[in-house]
Specification:
single chain; 17% strand; 3-stranded antiparallel sheet; Rossmann fold; binds 2'-deoxycytidine-5'-monophosphate
C-alpha cells in the first residue's frame, strides 16, 4: 500500500469488550503500518500482579495508592510476538499477567482513579509522537480523544466466550465454559459501570463487529479505514 510509508503517522485507538480480539487486530495493524503497538490492559494487569504478589487486598484503595510509587512498568520489544512484553520492576511478566488469577482481579484494580491516572499518563507519553496503535477501554475517549481513527470492537457474547475458552484451555484444562462466561460477564459489568472512565463507545468511533469475520477480514476492514483517512 503506497500511502503507508509517506503519510503522517496516525494515532489509532481500539476499544471494546474483553476478548473481542482487540490485541490481535492492534498488533497486526501496527505491524502492517510500522507503528508502535501498546497493549494498555497489560499495564493494569501488571499492577494487579504486583499487588497480588504483595498480598494487598484489591479492595483496599488506600493501601493500593500507597504502593503505586513502588511499581515501575517498562516495555521490551519481543520480535517473536511482534509486540512489546511488559516489564514489572525489570521482570518480564508478559506470561504471568495472562493468568486467570490476574484476570479475576484486574477489573477492580483498573477501576481505581489513582491507578488509572498513572497508567493513562504513561500511555499518553508512549503515544505522544503518533504512529501508534493502542488498545484498551478508554483509549478513544480519554487517552487519545483526538485520535484520527477510533475503532470500537464488539462481538457476539457467545463467540467471545468460545474464543476465550480456547485461549485458556491449554493452561487451565479443567476450566468450564460457564466459568469463562462468568468471568467475562463480571469484567464487562465492572469495566462498563465503574465511575472513572467506564468503557463507552466514542461518538466518532467506527464499530467493528467481528462475530462473523476472520482475522484477515477484520484487518482488511481496518486497513480500508486507515486508507480512507490517509487519502481524505
Ligand atoms: O484488555 P485486557 O483484558 O488486557 O484488560 C484488562 C483489564 O484492564 C480489563 O478489566 C479492563 C481494564 N482496562 C481498562 O480499564 N482500561 C484500559 N485502557 C485497558 C484495560
Amino acid at each position: 500500500m503506497l500511502f503507508l510509508g509517506v503519510s503522517k503517522p496516525l494515532t489509532i485507538a481500539i476499544d471494546g469488550w474483553s476478548s473481542c480480539g482487540k490485541s490481535t487486530l492492534a498488533r497486526q495493524l501496527a505491524a502492517r503500518l510500522g507503528y508502535l503497538y501498546v497493549d494498555s490492559g497489560s499495564m493494569y494487569r501488571a499492577i494487579t500482579l504486583y499487588l497480588q504478589r504483595k498480598g494487598i487486598d484489591l479492595s483496599d484503595t488506600s493501601a493500593i495508592e500507597k504502593t503505586l510509587p513502588d511499581i515501575r512498568l517498562d516495555f521490551q520489544y519481543n520480535s517473536d510476538r511482534q509486540a512489546s512484553d511488559i516489564l514489572l520492576n525489570g521482570e518480564n511478566v508478559e506470561a504471568q499477567i495472562r493468568d486467570l488469577s490476574v484476570a479475576s482481579g484486574v477489573s477492580a484494580v483498573a477501576a481505581i482513579a489513582a491507578v488509572r491516572k498513572i497508567a493513562v499518563a504513561r500511555q499518553q507519553e508512549l503515544g505522544a509522537r503518533g504512529g501508534v496503535v493502542m488498545d484498551g477501554r478508554d483509549i478513544g475517549t480519554v487517552v487519545f480523544p483526538n485520535a484520527e481513527l477510533k475503532i470500537f470492537m464488539t462481538a457476539d457474547p457467545e463467540v467471545r466466550v468460545g474464543r476465550r475458552l480456547l485461549e485458556l484451555s491449554s493452561k487451565h484444562p479443567t476450566i468450564t465454559r460457564e466459568e469463562v462466561r462468568e468471568n467475562l460477564r463480571t469484567r464487562d459489568h465492572i469495566d462498563s459501570t465503574r465511575e472513572v472512565s467506564p468503557l463507552t463507545q466514542a461518538p466518532d468511533a467506527r464499530v467493528l463487529d467481528n462475530s462473523g469475520l476472520n482475522m484477515q477480514q477484520q484487518l482488511d476492514l481496518a486497513l480500508s479505514w486507515v486508507g480512507e483517512i490517509l487519502n481524505a
